[in-house]
């Protein structure tokens, strides 16, 4: 066009036409993540027993040799939301029955958690319903005191970032396993022993800064809360100190736990509350009746589903975190980071730039 015509303001007109094109606006639409929320109470609950607040998830299965057969074994990772300790179990399948047995083994070793947080897997949903029915059945029985109710919380669908506390631990477990496991002919007992070793290694990792100039004070680790020290090996001085009385032992154990928790508050907690971003100007959140496009990493962008927001779900800080969207296939709940709001304003670029009909140049 520039070789044949001299058009004043052509560059601005082309930008205005592209800006007014609804298809171009849809293609450029991106999600607007809300400001990071405050840390949940379970991340800051000092002086609670380990795994009182637990996140749980599965990760990719391993092929094991059983006799002459090859079978799959899934690994289930339980993560303490407060002290960042991990507990690993093996499950033969993804069914609800298998997870119930895994949960029973976890509770037998680590105690009954107050709250379990997970994604919306069918085995997790089924287990939460079974536990709720069991508690309701025992509500009039004295045995209910031995079966305290477990609160089960679910993150929104398609929002793995909201389970980052245990997703990061799964990544650490996988990184260690890939280095130590054989590439083929893996037996189940070898896998079980390797997982126990990986669990201990991860629970020995430092939670706080490691002092390099002084070796007198070691960094705080999850094992300090689980075993009393980082490695679980009792020092020789513990046996040479004489035979204290029962009351002295009880008092010393309580003082030791309190000392670790005071270090947790002084050294680890300040690092959790630090924010290094979220200083931009806040943008208007998604609201009901907004038309959005749902981000789907498993599909091409031109096949992403469009829908209309029916309701929004906010957090304790009044930030909109997820929304209920009506699509052609029904209602879905998605986090805000997976919803791109479409700009449906009607713009006439030719009128804005004074281009009239009948001339040599057309906005088309």
What does this structure look like?
- The C terminus is likely disordered.
- This protein is an alpha+beta fold.
- The chain folds into 3 domains: 94 residues, SH3 type barrels; 163 residues, Ribonuclease H-like superfamily/Ribonuclease H (Nucleotidyltransferase, domain 5); 51 residues.
- The protein is globular, with a radius of gyration of 28 Å.
Layout of SSEs?
Blueprint: H1 10-20, H2 22-28, E1 53-66, E2 69-80, E3 86-91, H3 96-110, E4 115-118, H4 122-137, E5 151-154, H5 164-180, H6 188-203, H7 222-226, H8 237-240, H9 246-272, E6 291-294, E7 306-314, E8 320-327, E9 330-335, E10 339-341, H10 349-352
Parallel strand pairs: 1-4, 4-5
Antiparallel strand pairs: 1-2, 2-3, 6-7, 6-10, 7-8, 8-9
Helix pairs in contact: 3-4, 5-6
Characteristic terms for this protein:
19% strand, Nucleotidyltransferase, domain 5, 364 residues, SH3 type barrels, 10 helices, 34% helix, alpha+beta, 5-stranded mixed β-sheet, 5-stranded antiparallel β-sheet, globular, single chain, disordered C terminus, 10 strands, 3 domains
């Amino acid at each position: 066009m520039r070789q044949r015509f001299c058009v004043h303001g052509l560059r601005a007109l082309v930008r205005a036409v592209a800006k007014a094109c609804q298809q171009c606006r849809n293609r450029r639409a991106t999600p607007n993540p809300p400001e990071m929320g405050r840390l949940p109470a379970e991340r800051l609950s000092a002086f609670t027993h380990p795994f009182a607040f637990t996140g749980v998830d599965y990760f990719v299965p391993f092929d094991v040799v059983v006799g002459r057969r090859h079978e799959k074994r899934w690994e289930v990772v339980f993560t303490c939301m407060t002290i960042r300790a991990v507990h690993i179990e093996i499950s033969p399948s993804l069914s609800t029955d298998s997870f119930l047995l895994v949960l029973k083994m976890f509770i037998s070793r680590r105690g009954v958690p107050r709250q379990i947080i997970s994604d919306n897997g069918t085995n997790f949903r089924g287990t939460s319903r079974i536990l709720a029915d069991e508690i309701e059945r025992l509500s009039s029985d004295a045995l209910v005191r031995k079966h305290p109710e477990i609160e089960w919380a679910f993150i929104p669908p398609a929002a793995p970032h909201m389970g980052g506390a245990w997703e990061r631990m799964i990544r650490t477990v996988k990184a260690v396993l890939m280095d130590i496991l054989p590439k083929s002919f893996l037996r189940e007992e070898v896998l079980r022993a390797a997982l126990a070793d990986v669990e201990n290694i991860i629970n020995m990792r430092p939670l706080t800064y490691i002092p390099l100039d002084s070796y007198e004070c070691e960094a705080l680790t999850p094992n300090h809360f689980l075993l009393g020290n980082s490695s679980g090996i009792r020092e020789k001085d513990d046996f040479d100190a004489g035979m204290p009385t029962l009351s002295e032992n009880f008092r010393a154990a309580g003082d030791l736990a309190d000392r670790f928790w005071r270090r947790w508050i002084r050294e680890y907690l300040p690092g959790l509350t630090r924010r290094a971003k979220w200083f931009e100007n806040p943008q208007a959140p998604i609201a009901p009746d907004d038309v959005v496009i749902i981000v789907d990493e498993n599909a091409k962008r031109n096949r992403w589903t469009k829908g209309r927001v029916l309701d929004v779900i906010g957090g304790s800080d009044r930030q909109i975190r997820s929304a209920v969207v009506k699509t052609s296939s029904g209602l879905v709940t998605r986090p805000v980071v997976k919803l791109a709001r479409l700009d449906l304003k009607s713009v006439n670029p030719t009128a804005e730039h004074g281009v009239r009909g009948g001339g040599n140049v057309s906005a088309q």
